[in-house]
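Note to self: keep these together.
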Amino acid sequence: MESDIITADLPICTGYLDKTLEIFSLHKHPFIVVGTLAARWSGVGCLPQDEIDVLARSTEVDVIVKDLITSKDWEPCENPVAHQLDPDDTMINSTTIKDIWLKTRIQDPCFAYLRIWPDTLYNLSVDCAKIEVPDLQAKSSLLAEEEYYRDPHQRFGPRRASLYPDQLLPLLQIRAKFLQPDIPIFIPTIEAHINALLTQLRLQRETRLANGNFPGGHISLFVRYLYLDWPPARDWILENKIHACNRELLRAKIDRHQRGRGMILRDASLGEWVYGKLPWELGVKKKEPPS
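Structure:
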């Protein structure tokens, strides 16, 4: 490992998912990351949590978990956030479909836990539309699906992956893949992920049983970082990406979202920093006439 990539404040655990990826591959099961880590590849500027959230077919959860424990990289554990009590949005699963928490046995880990989500609990099929990402996480949050960058004048929006090729992989010392570089890591498309979250929230409200995924909070982050409260983006996603059964729920979430005006933003049309404007209230820089 080259010395210039070592950062003292980060763990040294290159290839920490190699065995895990191999197990999923042996079961011919795609490795699909959901939750916060998937959101970071979808332009959402949230921080990684202590757990890796992974989707699995309900019929294969037990055998995959057994092999993960046998690998010696993971051991069974209780839900580490079970002490957090919130009647509306909580990471505690109170449904009859159980998720599985595993604790890492790696000495210097990037993530403390692996959380296996049965597809029936996450309301998202393993066969959903998905995209491959280079690693479990990039150096910073990036938007892999660039159609969700909606402003034609490029005044605001998430960081598009194509514009930051140097950010696509984390430092070598915290890369998830090393010995298994050819086993893909997937995330669900934004469309599939948001619809799953909306279904989770809808069922949670109907049954008063939380699935442990904090769906309302995840949806709010998508609204914030994809600027879905901008009317053209709002209308576009509701019409083109959201299932009919979920549209009113997302419409209500967007309409309740309040974006603050307390940010100092760069107005390219004026060539100066301004205060008190929403991003879409910034002027449009005029194109220079051809010489």
